Amino acid sequence: MNSNTVCSFSSLSLVSRKNHHLEIAQVGVFVPHVMTSVCFVLFFFLDNCDDALVSPLPSTALTSSSELFSTHSPSFAKLNRRDGAGGWSPLDSNERQWLQVDLGDRVEIVAVATQGRYGSSDWVTSYTLMFSDTGRNWKQYRQDDTIWVFTGNSNADSVVHHKFLHSMKARFLRFIPLKWNVSGRIGLRVEVFGCSYNIADFDGRSSLLYRFNQKLMSTFKDVVSLKFKSMQGDGVLFHGEGQRGDYVTLELQKGKLSLHINLGDSNLHFSNSHTSVTLGSLLDDQHWHSVLIERFNKQVNFTVDKHTQHFRTKGDSDHLDIDYELSFGGIPVPGKPGTFQRKNFHGCIENLYYNGVNIIDLAKRRKPQIYTVGNVTFSCSEPQVVPITFVSTSHSYLLLPGTPQIDGLSVSFQFRTWNKDGLLLSPDSIYLTITKGGLKNTVVSCTSFFTPCTCILPGTNLHDGLWHSVNINARRHRITLTLDNNAATASHATTVSRIYSGNSYYFGGCPDNFTDSQCLNPVTAFQGCMRLIFIDNQPKDLILVQQGSLGNFSDLHIDLCGIKDRCLPNYCEHGGKCSQSWTTFYCDCNDTGYMGATCHNSIYEQSCEGYRHQGKTSGFFYIDSDGSGPLGPLRVFCNITEDKIWTAVQHNNTGITRVQGADPEKPYTMSFNYNSSAEQLEAIINSAEYCEQEAAYHCRKSRLLNTPNGMPFAWWVGRANEKHLYWGGSLPGIQQCACGLEESCLDMRYFCNCDADREEWTNDTGLLAFKDHLPVTQIVITDTNRSNSEAAWKIGPLRCYGDRQFWNAASFNTEASYLHFPTFHAEVSADISFFFKTTAVSGVFLENLGIKDFIRVEINSPKEITFSIDVGNGPTEATVQSPTPLNDNQWHYVRAERNLKQTSLQVDSLPKKVLEAPAEGHFRLQLNSQLFVASRQKGFLGCIRSLHLNGQKLDLEERAKTTPGVKPGCPGHCSSYGNLCHNGGKCVEKYNGYSCDCTNSAYEGPFCKEEVSAVFEAGTSITYIFQEPYPVTKNASTSSSAIYADAVMSKENIAFSFLTAHTPSLLLYINTYFHEYLAVILSKNGSLQVRYKLSKDGLLIFTIDSGNFANRELHHVKINREGRELVIQYFFCCTADSLSLDPEVSKANAYGFTGCLSSVQYNHIAPLKAALRHPSVAPVTVKGSLTESSCAAIMEADVNTVTTIYSSSGMSCQEGNGEFKRCCRVRYSAENKLCY
Question: Which of 510, 518, 574, 1114 sits between 20 and 30 A of 648, alpha carbons compared?
């Protein structure tokens, strides 16, 4: 290939290489290009890596923890062998035994097989695997991020074969028996299947350079794959750069892998076109990690182990231009544009491919394309480093001996942890701790009266999971504490007593019940890993500790660092920030709009209907249409009216906009921004019953659709970027306006008013209401460039009403009835919410089964709801018990949730039941059957509605239409929600929900809670003439008098609020045909009087003199009388200091009332509301000026309650602690008036 060609591939063939390696296909046709060559390759893995690896090994390659007899040694443990005792058996059968295979070299392992011991009752029924490259630093085989337990044998001679879901690379493999035949012993024969491949070792100063055949390699597609392992957290794995500013770099940074790429866009500054992505964690663990980078133009897929991130590079360029060469393992000649000063990689790389080229294979064969810098070897050197893991916060410790009575001491080691606190070291006289992520050591004197001294290294984040080195040196009276070999930041302290080395050094913790002063632990025990422990400048062999010949330990994993990054992947949803300890992770949900252990649950309702159900009134709210799903919350206006609940989404231009100078060559366009994604708007529209947007086009010599047969001069663009040629008020597919459908256009020859092209202004206005086309995203106008041509347009906000899901319900009429839906896929996070009502004592609401896993929600008894789930660790059951029966035929709410941290169940407002999830074990929920609402096995009788699974809505009604035994819908909402209708409002049943009828209430609004009030000026009054059954007439006949006899004032329920500064005032006056009356007045001194005149009694006067009620503050009065018992209750904002009785009562009728009256109610009649809302229909007369206003707005005040007890003799009493709480109960008779 020369510098004048580009290689682009149009055909495919397969080139198979031996040794079961990566297979490469590279075929192409050459196309002329200028001074560059562009290449890409396709490559495959062929599934032929299945050689038997144990059979050809010498018998010495198999070792074990122990052997029963020489005839049971591991040398007889090859598959199908019958010599010796026919397999391996250990001395004791317990879980501490193991069988190890040394495969000679690092190989790829794809499968294993096992047998029991030939002709015996000894076989293993389950086991785990561990693997290593050195016979040290073992790693457990995991699948689905869980330590995998393999099923073993059921007899001695059958072969059980297991193919790995993901292959492993190792030299050493250990079989760890967990369980075995209860009637025998551990017995094992094994085989391992796999293949070998290429490897290279870089020492931190070496690299491989892959040199191109031409000066510049320009590629629009690149594929790089490799595996690596290292003990160093930093180092460049590969790098390439060009003189135009292009570069690509893959490097380790603090144990994470970063990919930097720049495609050299000349229009952008270097810093603006640079793209960096970081993946992985704890990659310096001396274990193998896989990397795959795929780039096509600006699209890049970056994979580390099993985690992939997709991203696009910045800038406009699609090609990566690299000069001369690519370097692997480091940057040998820094200084070119884009080059970073970085460490070289120190570790091993295998199976290194760049665009199909096997770099290591070329280097091994000394091909001229590869230039080697420094010492690169083709076997992986293994540092003899033995890590240990402290497992428990209470029992783990490591005891190592020291050399006693040496003048001074010296201890150094490395550690890594996620915990902020823990004991690192406690020798005879010093303890070293990590506290709140910082390092601290305290010297404790050998006698108790000396004061301890402390060395602290503040501000260091030592719980970041990275390896940190600690060195503590003490000479005479001086202690020096050094962190990460940084002498400049070392901490120093002096002691009273001289310091000597000790006999014993405790790492990580102290033994149980240990009171000896040799081990002191002021904090919790350490959870984490340690390695490279030196005491008195001598390294400690931790394998000797494992073998029991050095020191002592408890709850340690030796030769294994069990650290795990629980924030990778990040299971905190919706942008939650993840942090972790050794055993779990935590999610910070602040500013996300979500809550819960994993930020799974939205804090917002899914629709305006949900806010209405909470009793909210109109206003701006955030709604989250898919609940816990991926769509974020959206701010909308909820217009919560009596009949429909409207959701309005504003855009950036809802006013009238004038347009001139537009023609087909230079069209006018306006795009609309709803401050939301298209998916959010689509979710709102799809869940609504009806949606609309007003479209108005005002025109003067500006044609709109150019009807009847012309090309439109204006159009709008809707969902899916689709162009639409109909206007508001018309139908999709019909190029008309509203007047065309109604046959009402100004000129009947056209289907739009504006198409008549008249000199005077006219308009076409209507509603766009076809949901699948909404919202309007753009409008285009092209006919305003002629003489006197002008247009003005307006696109209104998106408006929708009706939540199709909130009241979506199904009625299950038999125990055998159920609905089925597709499998519920919720591997790591699941939430289920619904409403139910039933009279049955038990039943299953919902269940979904897998092979072993399942999920179920059921009512076990009238007072008990249970959420059951099994993800492979055994069933977990969360149960909520109610103090009252739940089978009361009322609606009840259930929400069940399961995530990696918790399983929880909420029923109504009862306390939530929360169960913590185990830190280890299976965590993926694997379901494969259909999802059943109700159950085929244990049915449910009753109703279920508003069923959501992970925010997705299940249409119960639609499925119920075609399912026997199930009916769509469920009546009886008022029995559960009638209490939401206040102030005498009546609940009215609807098919989808309910409404509040406020006809007989003094209030209005969706829940009869909005006050109806008005300002009365001097001379203003309202007169309401009672109709049946309370007619008032002077010329009633005898018969009519008999009819009206029942209308005697035997009971009143009166309520109103008032605000005034004028006295005396008449607030309320009621009279009857029988000359009975009731008057409520304010006396001249501001006291409140209630004056009763009943037919058989004299005038009764009740005075409430607890202050001046004409104080420009809002007061609320309730008067209830039934028979001879009267209750007067009033509320006011401020408590009076005392009750001063002033008997002065003046006649207030002539003065009327000046002020504000609100929510006036007399029995079932609301006279003020009738006067304001229905003055032409209601039997009401208004005199003077009556202006609707809000009394509450005039005077906002805190409300205290006052209830006063009065007798006809003026007696009163006071109750409570300084507050007025009065209630008047009076019984009337002809002989006396008794207050009690």
Answer: 574
DSSP string of 475-512, one letter each residue: ETTEEEEEETT-GGG-EEEE-SS--B--SEEEES---T
Give Cβ neighbours of residue 1220 (< 8 Å, ≥ 6 apart): 1106, 1135, 1136, 1139, 1200, 1202, 1203, 1204, 1214
Q: Cα–Cα distances in Å, from 735 out to 377, 713, 752, 1028?
A: 76, 12, 9, 57
As a whole number of angstroms, the distance between CA 880 and CA 866 comes to: 7
Q: Is 687 left (phi over 0), alpha (psi -120 to 50) or beta?
A: alpha
Q: Are 1226 and 1233 in contact (CB under 8 A)?
A: yes
**Could you tell me the two tokens for 983?**
């102030």
Amino acid in the structure at residue 399: L
CA angle 1086, 1092, 1094 (to 5 degrees): 170
Measure CA 128 to chain center: 35
| HSE-CB for 690 with a 13 A CA cutoff | 8
Q: Say what the pLDDT of residue 84 is.
A: 93
The neighbouring-strand residues paired with 347 are 202, 230
Nearest CA among 49, 60, 242, 58 for reference residue 163: 49
Q: What angle do CA 708, 709, 715 make, to 5 degrees?
A: 85
| Backbone dihedral angles phi then psi of residue 755, each to the nearest 5 degrees | -70, -15
Cis-peptide, bond into residue 334, ω within 30° of zero: no
| Three-class DSSP category at 444 | coil
- From 1059, 1037, 1028, 1024, select the one nearest 1131 (Cα to Cα): 1059
323-340 in b/e form (b: 16+ CB < 10 A) is bbbbbbbbbbeeeeebee
From start to end of 1072-1166, where are the E strands? 1077-1082, 1088-1093, 1099-1104, 1115-1122, 1125-1132, 1155-1162
Nearest to 296 by CA among 347, 338, 261, 252: 261
pLDDT for the residue 203: 92
Contact between 954 and 687 (Cβ < 8 Å): no
Could you give the CA distance from residue 282 to residue 289 in angstroms, rounded to a whole number?
10
Contact between 101 and 58 under an 8 Å Cβ cutoff? The reply is no
Taking the chain, what is the end-to-end CA distance rounded to the nearest angstrom? 113
* Residues contacting 118, CB < 8 A, separation 6+: 81, 82, 85, 86, 87, 156, 157, 189
859 is written with which tokens?
């009512």
For residue 886, give both structure tokens: 């739940």
Q: Which residues contact 377 (CB under 8 A, 6 or more apart)?
A: 200, 201
Provide DSSP, 890-933: S-EEEEEEE-SSEEEEEETTSPPEEEEPPSSS-------S-EEE
What whole-number distance in Å separates Cα of residue 204 and Cα of residue 532?
20
| Contact status, residue 360 vs residue 350, Cβ threshold 8 Å | yes
pLDDT digits (tens, 9 = 90+) for 879-898: 999 999 999 999 999 999 99
Task: Check if the beta carbon of residue 729 is closer than 8 Å to that of residue 782.
Answer: no
How far is Cα of residue 936 from the mean position of the Cα atoms in its chain? 33
Q: Long-range contact list for 1213-1218, CB < 8 A, 24+ apart?
A: 1214/1139, 1218/1135
User: 1222: helix, coil or strand?
Assistant: coil
Helix (H, G, I), strand (E, B) or coil at 611: helix
Q: What is the largest CA-CA distance in the chain?
A: 128
Q: What is the pTM of this model?
A: 0.70
Helix, strand or coil, per DSSP, at residue 1019: coil
CA-CA distance, 556 to 562, in Å (whole number)?
A: 10
> What pLDDT shows up at residue 1208?
33
What percent of the residues of the chain are helix, what percent strand, and what percent coil, each to the nearest 5? 5, 40, 50
DSSP 1029: T
pLDDT of residue 1097: 66
CA 262 from chain centre, in angstroms, equals 34
